[in-house]
Amino acid sequence: MAVEVLNCADGVAKTTLSRAHAASWFASREAGPALEIGHCSPPSFPARPDQPVLLSPRDVPRRKPGTPAGRIALLHAVAHIELNAVDLHWDIIARFSDVKMPIGFYDDWVKAADEESKHFNLICECLKDRGSHYGALAAHAGMWRAAEDTAEDFMGRLAVVPMVLEARGLDVTPGMIEIFRKSGEAKAVESLEVIYREEVGHVAYGSKWFNFLCGRHEKDPKVVFHALVRKYFHSTLRPPFNEEKRAEAGLPPDFYWPLTEKLE
Ligand SMILES: [Fe+2]
Ligand SMILES: [Fe+2]
């Protein structure tokens, strides 16, 4: 199921498949013994549509959120992040299937993948209302970098993707909601509020399973987290942090504050 989603290029087809597979997973969980966790080789890069054109971040034009065009660009960037997140969550399921995990691990990431699919569709609706669509603008090419860097490192993947990148989403989403509130765009506000609420869960799944694996290997989570983020994340973390939501997601300050400093 995961590999099928990863190999599907079109955004709408990918998210439709993702939601259908999530529904059958949860239907089987209700019905009795869970579906068997198979083994597979996910693609190094998930299939993506021909549009948007992917550019290096410095070549993606910056637009001011004070204009309607700027807000479309912002929504387009969010749609791109959500589609990437669909792939990231199915990828963690497929890529590390040789490590025996409790069934709840799969429940969490299937649910997260389902939610990302919903997020992509919500934002696509907002784009459509503004006469645009996903693919109309250029997008960031570096989104799969974290997945590539941690393709061989399960704990590294959990540290960098949910606990750094998705946690960053918790820091910046309130500001984005404010932009659309100010411009009186209620549907965009509502959609971003759904995303904001559900993303806390994704970060929480990350810290839950990261702590679980540390416990399994009798390692100190904070020490391991610092080492893995320094190894795989190519920058320091940037405040301000959403300390309240990070706490709700099981990320204490001593995990992220030390990573704001460059090591000599
Ligand atoms: Fe999302
Ligand atoms: Fe997420």
TrEMBL record:
Q: Which domain of life is it from?
A: Bacteria
| SUPFAM superfamilies (alphabetical) | Ferritin-like
Q: Tell me the Pfam families matching this sequence.
A: DUF455 (PF04305)
| Record protein name field | Ferritin-like domain-containing protein
